[in-house]
Write a structure and sequence with these properties.
272 residues; alpha/beta; Cobalt-precorrin-4 Transmethylase, domain 1; Methyltransferase, Cobalt-precorrin-4 Transmethylase, Domain 2; 3 domains; five-stranded parallel sheet; five-stranded mixed sheet; 11 helices; 10 strands
Length: 272
């Protein structure tokens, strides 16, 4: 009999958020692979679940993925869980999932809590379309570069951020993206859950007055479509070219965003 790998979502804070199906799967599998066994033991003990545990945190993920594959090959069923949320989504798990698929095993999702979706649902910002970037790079130069690349993104943007960088990241967003509307979630679904909504400059001011702790979810509105003169559009083309974009690519991005004639914008950009 072939083993099965279950990708089980676990609570992002409140232990009551786990699904009935997730509890059943965790009780039925032969082994549970956890990002951090010490952390996951709190959840498992709370629900009286006692199963063999395998740790697969960052440094061990590649090695432990092979151990999990061997267990699957022997016919065992394995539940993969992270510390919170869904394995592989800004969490370890991608390596194991990829290996199991390559080996032809059934990989079955057991969906549940998501900080991304929870924050979006009550952000008050447009929900029809959004883009998720996860954690921004820890290095300042790389972080600024990514924010600059997202500067013309029209969809709502969702980020995760660590407490020691959240103020710096918000301030960089303000300087690079402008004073946009934002919803900032602190300790979402936990006892000290708190949300800050408003313009970036106001949210930054409010957050500085609070205790910075736990991980944050930042939901930022996309760049609004504005009717601008061609001369201003040409300035944006020039700015993109300075950042390394080719002329055709820069013209395409600006013309599509503002609904301008690509040919006219390209021809006029040659004259500048």
């Amino acid at each position: 009999m072939k083993g099965v790998l279950y990708i089980v979502s676990t609570p992002i804070g409140n232990l009551e958020d786990i699904t009935l199906r997730a509890l059943r799967i965790l009780k039925e599998v032969d082994v549970i692979a956890a990002e951090d066994t010490r952390h996951s033991s709190k959840l498992l003990n709370h629900y009286g679940i006692s199963k063999p545990l395998i740790s697969y945190w960052k440094e061990k993920e590649k090695v432990r993925s092979e151990e999990i594959i061997k267990r699957l090959q022997s016919g065992q069923s394995v539940a993969l869980i992270s510390d919170a949320g869904t394995p592989g989504i800004s969490d370890p798990g991608e390596v194991i999932i990829k290996r199991a698929i390559e080996e032809g095993f059934d990989v079955i999702p057991v969906p549940g809590p998501s900080a991304l979706i929870a924050a979006l649902s009550v952000s008050g910002l447009p929900l029809r379309e959004f883009t998720f970037t996860g954690f921004l790079p820890s290095k300042k130069a790389q972080r600024r570069k990514m924010l600059e690349e997202l500067g013309m993104e029209k969809r709502t943007i969702v980020f995760y951020e660590a407490p020691h960088r959240v103020i710096e990241t918000l301030e960089e967003m303000y300087h690079i993206l402008g004073n946009r509307r934002v919803a900032l979630f602190k300790e979402i679904t936990k006892i000290h859950e708190e949300v800050f909504r408003g313009l970036l400059e106001n949210v930054i001011s409010e957050v500085k007055k609070t205790t910075i702790a736990g991980e944050f979810v930042i939901v930022v509105e996309g760049k609004g479509i504005e009717k601008i003169p061609v001369e201003d559009a040409l300035k944006e083309v020039k700015a993109l070219i300075k950042k390394g974009k080719g002329r055709k690519e820069a013209v395409r991005m600006v013309s599509e965003y503002y609904g301008l004639s690509k040919k006219e914008l390209y021809d006029r950009s040659l004259l500048r």
